[in-house]
Specification:
By secondary structure, the chain is α+β, with helices and mostly antiparallel strands. It has 2 domains: 161 residues, 2-Layer Sandwich (Uridine Diphospho-n-acetylenolpyruvylglucosamine Reductase, domain 3); 94 residues, CO dehydrogenase flavoprotein, C-terminal domain (Enolase-like, domain 1, 2-Layer Sandwich), CATH 3.30.390.50. Strand 4 and strand 5 form a beta hairpin. The N and C termini lie far apart (48 Å).
């Protein structure tokens, strides 16, 4: 690990100012960033710790949306009665992340800001058409994820919370790596006020929406309709865990299971 300076911010304004001055990186749960630093794959000169900022934590229902603070831990989402009542799929998704240690340290904001290609939370943000609220603006889900480990966030921008509209139906099913529990492929299916949305993670360099599945399920929200869709393997990931063709095959299979789970 390279040498770095650690700054503890007490307010969002302090954090943004420290990031702007140092050009450093915000530190949320540290489950991805710290590991990258240990392997010398990342070299931030300054880390700005967000754990002391109270306004970044918590879960609340606002109208027809569930608002989850950026520094809310995965375990807190998984155990929240408010989440289980309003959008139970988010509790189930959070419970399936990593292991107990990861869930007790990792955060919603840290996960989507990191935008790992196989992370679970980006699919929920896209699938539910959520809004990412920062200290500067509100960013629509479709505009937030830009590519592998890349988002629309500016260097001094801090995620405050994510607002998830409450869907009519939603479910998430993933084919997990047995060691890491990251998604080899994960599919989030939702019936929302604006129609059916299907988000896929693990299959490509970044989470994405599947228009073929959305079109099919918009006509018939059934497991059979999802399973009948053929997905093009062009641009999908290839690694020791699976080929692009294998991932293309998994997407409609998992989508059909998600539709069945959604009811």
């Amino acid at each position: 690990m390279y040498e770095f300076e650690l700054t503890h911010a007490k307010t969002v304004a302090e954090a943004a100012a420290a990031l702007a001055k140092s050009g450093g990186r915000p530190l949320a749960g540290g489950q991805s960033l710290v590991q990258a630093m240990r392997l010398r794959l990342a070299q931030p000169g300054t880390l700005v710790d967000l754990s002391g900022i109270a306004e970044l934590k918590g879960i609340k229902k606002e109208g027809e949306a569930l608002v989850i603070g950026a520094m809310t831990r995965h375990a807190q989402v998984a155990e929240s009665a408010a989440v289980k009542s309003a959008i139970p799929v988010l509790a189930a998704l959070a419970h399936g992340i990593g292991d107990r240690q990861v869930r007790n340290m990792g955060t919603l904001g840290g996960s989507i800001a990191n935008n790992d290609p196989a992370a679970d939370w980006p699919s929920a943000v896209l699938g539910l058409n959520a809004t990412v609220v920062t200290n500067k603006r509100k960013i629509a889900a479709d505009d937030f994820f830009k590519g592998m480990y890349e988002t629309a966030l500016a260097a001094d921008e801090v995620i405050i919370a994510v607002s998830f509209p409450i869907p009519k139906k939603a479910a998430y099913v993933k084919f997990p790596n047995p060691a890491s529990r990251f998604a080899l492929v994960g599919v989030f299916v939702a019936q929302t006020a604006s129609g059916v949305r299907v988000a896929v993670t693990g299959a490509a360099p970044s989470a994405f929406r599947s228009k073929p599945l959305e079109d099919a399920l918009g006509k018939s929200f059934t497991a059979d309709a999802a399973k009948a869709v053929k997905i093009d393997s062009k641009g999908l990931n290839a690694d020791l865990h699976g080929s692009p063709d294998y991932r293309a095959h998994l997407i409609p299979v998992l989508a059909s299971r998600a539709v069945a789970a959604a009811g």
